[in-house]
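Hey, quick one: can you model this chain's 3D structure?
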Amino acid sequence: MEQSAVEEMAIDIPVLDLSHLMPKTGLEDEHEKLSTRPKGGAPTVITPYVLIRLQEAFLWGCSDVEACTYAHISDRTLYRYQVKYPKFCQEKEAFKTAPILKARQTIVDNLGNPKVAMWYLERKRRDEFDLKATCEVSISRGQEIVESLKKELRIDDESLAKLAKKEFD
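Sure thing. Here's the predicted structure for all 169 residues.
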């Protein structure tokens, strides 16, 4: 039997026990059934070991291709498995969100640090705390004032530039 390019180039990375991070989805029994060889056919490629490797990779935020490489399977094998077990797609998405949730938790846990708190507010309340947005508002307001004065004083851009140059020289 020929090995796929993914299986040939796969590196052996030790398996970490991340079962405590994995949410219970009710698919555990279905996954266990896969560890036995089907009657009259080739043994399944998706073993409990492969599922653990996929889950680890998805918990790290890996793409499907990266997870497949880590689990030593082809992406086609993963997609066939997802067709056969559609609930696995939901499980996979839950695993892929784990790093984002962990990052959010880390930020919230560190809001006591003024730099982290300011960083958070700059992103969550841009209109109020983002320095760039404040500068843009100030500049646009300044441009509105200049345009208003130009109309009131009936001055064109060229005349205004001459006055400004004279003032600042």
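One thing worth noting: Residues 4-16 have pLDDT under 50 and may be disordered.
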